[in-house]
Amino acid sequence: AQTVTQSQPEMSVQEAETVTLSCTYDTSESNYYLFWYKQPPSRQMILVIRQEAYKQQNATENRFSVNFQKAAKSFSLKISDSQLGDTAMYFCAFMSSRSGYALNFGKGTSLLVTP
Amino acid sequence: KAGVTQTPRYLIKTRGQQVTLSCSPISGHRSVSWYQQTPGQGLQFLFEYFSETQRNKGNFPGRFSGRQFSNSRSEMNVSTLELGDSALYLCASRVWNEQFFGPGTRLTVL
Fold this sequence. Notes:
The complex is a heterodimer of chains A (115) and B (110). Chain A has 115 residues and is mainly beta.
C-alpha cells in the first residue's frame, strides 16, 4: 500500500512571504497522480494543484507551484505571496489506477498566515 | 453547475443507533466516493460507487455500507454506531483523476 508522509504538522508564515510544505510518498508504481488539497476552517476540501507522474514539468497554479522529484518520491508545495486566506490544513494525496482511483492522504500540515 | 451536496450537515446519534448520510454528486458525474476524517486517523477512504455498483472498498468493518441510485445519488449507512465513528464524512464525485468534494456531514456519536 502506498504511504504519504507530511512531516510538518504545523507551519506559520507572514503575509506576502513564501512557504514550502513537504510531502513524501512511497509506491512501486510508475504511473500515478499527486495532489495538494486545502481544507479551510469551513471544512470544504478544495483541490489546489495536481501533478501527473509521467509529466516531468512541475505543475503551477497562480501562486501555487510544486517541486516534483519522482526519483526521490517527493512532492512539495510552494505558496508564494502568502495571503490570509491561505490559512488552512493542507493535505498531500496519492492516487493511482491500481488503487482504484481512491485518494490516499497524508496527515496534513496546518498552515497559519499571519499579518 | 451545482457542486456536490451532502445532507444532513450535522448529526448527533447515540451508541448502538444507525445512521444514513446522503450525497448528491455534480450533475453528470457517475462516480461517488466516501471518506472518513478523524483527528486520530486522518482521512480514510471508505468506498466508491459507480453506476450503482461498489467498485472499490477501503478497510472498514461491515457496519459501514453504501449504495448508489440510478440518478447517481449515494447513501452511506453506519449501523450499531460506536463512539469512534464520530467523524466528518466527506463525499466526492470523480471524473477521471479529479475528485470534487462536498462540504461533509459532521457525525457525533454520544
